[in-house]
Design brief:
cytoplasm, GroES-like_sf, alpha/beta, 2 domains, Quinone Oxidoreductase, Chain A, domain 1
Length: about 350
């Protein structure tokens, strides 16, 4: 297979110009307990954008724009609040085939089509969140022809879906499932989903419906028809002047039991105000802005429960693969771009004019 590969390499924090295309980057070699994967497709996600731009840094309070941000610092520029080393190959959402095995790996994996669980855990204490890493952040990921990963993170998948379709699931669906787990969503719940047209938002619709919950999707008017086709019980605007009135018109009441949010921003106080007494708020993102107006009286007087949702517990990804293989969730592939055009693909991703997920193929 040769000793080099094509890869898109992140050279440092900043704008899209920090992504550099290489025709002959050193190809990784599978070490003990690892597999080498020939990448068929790799999905885009906000973690890639936020890490590149150092958006996670406490030095900035801007929305996710994808550009270099004033005040951002390398010391806390990643999801884990620490620095990373460059060069780095990003890309967490890999679908591909196992091309080589390191020592001690089950020979039955060779040639299998697999998905990669992007959460890297300490095998001695997989529940320790402080020791968790993310594929394409704390190690090289899938924006290349080949990638290597611990064999424990590899999940064979039996499906008629294409590599590109399968690459839409990993980050968005595992994030959504983790949010719903943290909020203990069940069949008696009504879940409000801001940003419902994005990868996580659209996954939240499907996975909450799978649990028997009622769903209310929030999105821009131009995307309403496409979002409605995913199957929510109601669709309302992404930033209504009066959210309670919009809910009353859509579902006959002014409140929901759960808000599952990846948006934040200016609409946030209205989201919290629409949660029924004793309800729950779960959050895994803040693309419209991480700093919000928070009235503690609403929080404690209404007996609300807030949960953050980032590090995903072991077993969640395997559950997702089962959903895929049984056809319980469907892919929402918005567009496929060549890996060499990742800059343009990421610009389209940041523009948020699509519904679902964008994928690149080597």
């Amino acid at each position: 297979m040769g000793e080099t590969m094509r890869a898109m390499v992140l050279t440092g924090h900043g704008g899209l110009d920090r992504l550099v295309w290489h025709e002959a980057w050193p190809k990784p070699v599978a070490g003990p307990g690892e597999v080498l994967i020939r990448v068929g497709a790799c999905g885009l996600n906000n973690t890639d954008v936020n890490t590149r731009s150092a958006w996670y840094s406490k030095g900035t309070s801007a929305p996710t724009t994808g550009g270099a941000l004033d005040g951002a610092a390398e010391q806390d520029a990643t999801w884990g609040g620490a620095a990373i080393s460059f060069p780095r190959i990003q890309g967490a959402d890999v679908c591909g085939r196992v091309a080589a095995l390191g020592a001690g790996v089950d020979a039955g994996l060779l040639g299998r089509r697999v998905l990669v669980d992007p959460w890297l855990r300490d095998p001695e204490d997989p529940l320790d969140m402080d020791r968790a890493g993310y594929f394409g952040s704390e190690c090289d990921g899938g924006f290349a022809e080949f990638t290597r990963v611990d064999a424990r993170n590899v999940h064979p998948v039996e499906s008629a879906l294409s590599d590109a379709e399968l690459a839409t699931f990993a980050t968005s669906c595992v994030t959504a499932e983790n949010m719903l787990d943290r909020a203990a969503v069940g069949q008696d719940d009504t879940v409000l989903i801001p940003g419902a047209s994005g990868g996580v938002g659209s996954a939240l619709i499907q996975l909450a419906k799978r649990r028997g919950a009622r769903t209310v999707a929030m999105c821009g008017g131009a995307k309403a028809a496409a979002v409605a086709a995913i199957g929510p019980d109601a669709v309302i605007g992404r930033a209504p002047e009066d959210l309670k009135a919009a809910l009353r018109a859509a579902i006959g009441r002014e409140s929901v039991t759960v808000v599952a949010d990846v948006v934040g921003g200016a609409v946030w106080p209205q989201l919290i105000g629409a949660i029924a007494r004793g309800g729950r708020y779960t959050c895994a993102g803040a693309i419209a802005g991480p700093v919000v107006e928070f009235d503690l009286r609403t929080f404690y007087l209404r007996d609300l429960t807030f949960t953050g949702a980032t590090v995903v517990p072991p077993g969640t990804f395997a559950r997702l693969v089962g959903h895929i293989e049984r056809g319980e969730i469907r892919p929402l592939l918005a567009a496929t771009w060549p890996l060499a055009e990742l800059r343009a693909a990421q610009a389209a991703f940041i523009a948020k004019s699509h519904v679902g997920n964008i994928v690149v193929t080597p």
